[in-house]
């Protein structure tokens, strides 16, 4: 694929100096991502494309430009490309997301609207596409491939099939098939995934992967099946195995999962890093505003021992190749003029951002105009949950004894999203499961919010909550209403608050709401500006910390409790899921 110029003949004239070009950026230390060199240069731009890079800077040639910008001896690098992100996880709409990331140097993102598609279906893909179109950055769309993530084990608000992929592939900013999470379905050659992949390939889409913890023949089969990338690489040996097989590994630095250090440890002595790219996956508004987006990812790469030029290449040219774009990711003749001026190649403080040759941000401030563009979906209600009472938040025990065996969803650690099912004896009091004497055990509910009336009620250990309740409609990937609680009154309060406000995040203590973050758009995104969402997010984090959650960023702790593609066990609205066996297991075994 290529970004096509409107008039290539005009570009040729400008390249040869026969007509004035639109822009010259001079007095820069030019970073060449093809050779790894840095040298003084002037970059010439016309009609949004680089038409020449001059290694010398003769003053007479500057009269060939209508506008001359002094780069003030800063480094000139390509605009950053995020290989994989869910914009919904920023809790911002696409336009507000653009307002936040452009000043950080991100000029292109590859976004998977998987989250909102689970809520509103095919309409959601069109909404995200249209809302992100025509901005002073690129928001490319990969079509969600797994809605729901695992059919038969959970119920979402929609089902995406091969026909839907075929229809959506015609939209102009659609470039790929999004993370194929049902990797078991791929390696087993199941019809559903094979049909979806076949349609994507017929439409010329690249296939994005999602394969946590896989190795050996599983990797080989997955590649043969079609997916060629993976952002779910967490361990050093896993990264080495995938890269050796030819997978594009996207080193992830999200708001909750940080894999850069482990991956770079594995590739440190490799001669080639062409199949290594960077992504953020899930990054929240306050992290973007106050810490950074892709600029922070490359900073982390350098802090973990990567050369600054190599880090730039991983965040630009490598990603462009991964998504099959021929003229993105470099500042070179014929390439889209997405360029950054940064002060150094370690901290990457972004001084200026150019998108298609236009200055769109300077000194951390957006200078391009992004107008609001309201859409019907931004006010569509999404909380069609069963009507529950306080008594429904008491876990009935199918026994008359004082204890009962239960399969308890157990977290491996406070930093990991991986969980397992552990059978243990739990207390029973008055016919109900009693956790009052176990500080590390909580109740957990997954409540379908798409009108089925289903909900699951079980137990979770080592979640981190010490009192009260934590609830969220940000619950990957079906985004049913998830609630973890220590007492029924707090769980019920969170349930009522989130239903009333149309979705979001809430917490309670002693039956009273102590934190509420409203996410009106599908229960996932806010219509507020980035600064407002960041402030609300920070308050919510502090409220959750006060309930015992120890993480610096506790918002997404609950989000992966119902994600049945992450080993080994998860909850869904249908029950407790054995992820690898792809089957439901009883909460109270016989």
Give the key terms.
590 residues, alpha/beta, 9-stranded mixed beta sheet, 16 helices, 28% strand
Strand content: 25-35%
Strands, total number: 29
Number of helices: 16
What class would the helix/strand composition place it in? Answer: alpha/beta
Largest sheet: 9 strands, mixed
**Average residue pLDDT:** 94
What Rg do the Cα atoms give? 25 Å
Head-to-tail CA distance between termini: 57 Å
Unreliable residue stretches? none
Q: Assign an overall shape.
A: elongated
**How much helicity do the residues have?**
10-25%
3D structure, described in words:
The protein is of the alpha/beta class. The chain contains 16 helices and 29 strands. Strands 1, 2, 3, 4, 5, 14, 15, 16 and 17 form a 9-stranded mixed beta sheet that branches. A hairpin with a 2-residue loop joins strand 27 and strand 28 (575-578). Helix 3 (114-120) packs across helix 4 (122-131), helix 9 packs across helix 10 and helix 12 (294-303) packs across helix 13. The longest helix has 17 residues, at 530-546. It is elongated, with a radius of gyration of 25 Å. The relative contact order is 0.13. The model has no long low-confidence stretch (mean pLDDT 94).
Question: How would you sum up this structure in a few lines?
Answer:
The protein is α/β, with parallel strands linked by helices and 590 residues long.
């Amino acid at each position: 694929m290529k970004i096509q110029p409107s008039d290539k003949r005009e570009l040729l004239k400008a390249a040869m100096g026969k007509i004035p070009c639109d822009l010259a950026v001079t007095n820069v230390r030019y970073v060449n991502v093809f050779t790894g060199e840095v040298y003084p240069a002037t970059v010439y731009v016309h009609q949004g494309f680089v038409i020449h890079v001059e290694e010398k800077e003769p003053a007479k040639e500057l009269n060939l430009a209508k506008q001359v910008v002094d780069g003030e001896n800063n480094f000139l690098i390509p605009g950053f490309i995020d290989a994989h992100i869910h914009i919904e996880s920023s809790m911002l709409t696409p336009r507000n997301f653009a307002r936040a990331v452009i000043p950080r140097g991100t000029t292109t993102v590859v976004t998977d609207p998987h989250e909102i598609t689970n809520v509103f279906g095919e309409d959601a893909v069109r909404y995200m596409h249209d809302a992100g179109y025509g901005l002073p950055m690129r928001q490319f769309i990969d079509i969600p491939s797994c809605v729901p993530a695992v059919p038969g084990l959970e119920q979402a608000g929609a089902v995406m099939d091969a026909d839907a992929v075929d229809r959506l592939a015609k939209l102009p900013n659609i470039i790929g098939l999004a993370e194929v999470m049902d990797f078991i379905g791929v390696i087993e050659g199941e019809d559903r995934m094979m049909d979806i992949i076949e349609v994507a390939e017929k439409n010329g889409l690249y296939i994005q992967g999602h394969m946590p913890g896989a190795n050996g023949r599983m990797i080989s089969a997955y590649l043969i099946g079609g997916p060629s990338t993976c952002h779910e690489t967490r361990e050093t040996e896993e990264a080495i195995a995938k890269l050796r097989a030819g997978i594009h590994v996207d080193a992830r630095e999200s708001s909750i999962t940080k894999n850069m250090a482990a991956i770079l440890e594995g590739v440190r002595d490799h001669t080639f890093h062409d199949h290594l790219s960077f992504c953020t996956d899930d990054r929240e508004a306050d992290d973007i505003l106050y810490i950074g987006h892709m600029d922070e990812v490359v900073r982390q790469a350098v802090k973990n021992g990567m050369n600054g030029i190599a880090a730039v290449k991983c965040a630009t040219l490598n990603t462009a190749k991964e998504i099959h774009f021929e003229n993105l990711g470099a500042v070179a003749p014929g390439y889209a003029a997405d360029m950054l001026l940064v002060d150094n190649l370690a901290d990457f403080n972004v001084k200026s951002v150019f998108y298609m040759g236009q200055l769109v941000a300077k000194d951390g401030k957006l200078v391009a105009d992004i107008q609001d563009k309201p859409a019907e979906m931004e006010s569509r209600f999404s909380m069609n949950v069963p009507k529950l009472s306080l008594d429904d938040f008491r876990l009935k025990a199918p026994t008359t004894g004082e204890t009962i065996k239960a399969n308890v969803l157990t977290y491996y650690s406070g930093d990991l999203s991986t969980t397992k099912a552990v059978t243990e004896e739990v207390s029973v009091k008055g016919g109900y499961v009693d956790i009052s004497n176990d500080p590390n055990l909580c109740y957990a509910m997954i409540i379908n919010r798409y009108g089925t009336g289903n909900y699951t009620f079980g137990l979770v250990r080592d979640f981190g909550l010490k009192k009260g309740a934590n609830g969220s409609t940000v619950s990957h990937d079906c985004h049913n209403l998830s609630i973890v609680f220590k007492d029924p009154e707090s769980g019920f309060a969170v349930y009522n608050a989130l239903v009333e406000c149309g979705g979001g995040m809430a917490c309670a203590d002693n039956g009273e709401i102590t934190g509420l973050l409203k996410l009106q758009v599908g229960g996932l995104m806010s219509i507020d500006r980035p600064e407002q969402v960041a402030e609300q997010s920070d308050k919510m984090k502090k409220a959750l910390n006060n309930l015992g959650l120890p993480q610096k960023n506790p918002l997404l702790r609950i989000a992966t409790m119902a994600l049945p593609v992450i080993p080994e066990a998860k909850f869904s609205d249908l029950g407790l899921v054995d992820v690898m066996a792809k089957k439901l297991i009883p909460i109270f075994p016989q």
